[in-house]
Amino acid sequence: MSLKEINETFKEISSMKPLSLLKCTKCDEKLERSYKEGEYATKVVEDKCPKCASPMYVKLIYVNPPPQPQSSY
Ligand SMILES: [Zn+2]
Fold this sequence. Notes:
Elements: H1 3-14, E1 18-24, E2 30-34, E3 44-48, E4 55-63
Antiparallel strand pairs: 1-2, 1-4, 3-4
The protein binds zinc ion (ZN).
């Protein structure tokens, strides 16, 4: 793999913008925001539930597929 290819791959990954789905520990409120380094499923994060202000935990970490590039062919 050439250095150029590695750079391309890195660019691709960072353009995917991973997201964390947070869930309230008390109610069922869910919150989606961008993933922060070091987060993993079930980790309790500093974010508070917008509904009841209880701590929230990471329910799921996922990647949004990047928007399809406009094909010019
Ligand atoms: Zn809540």
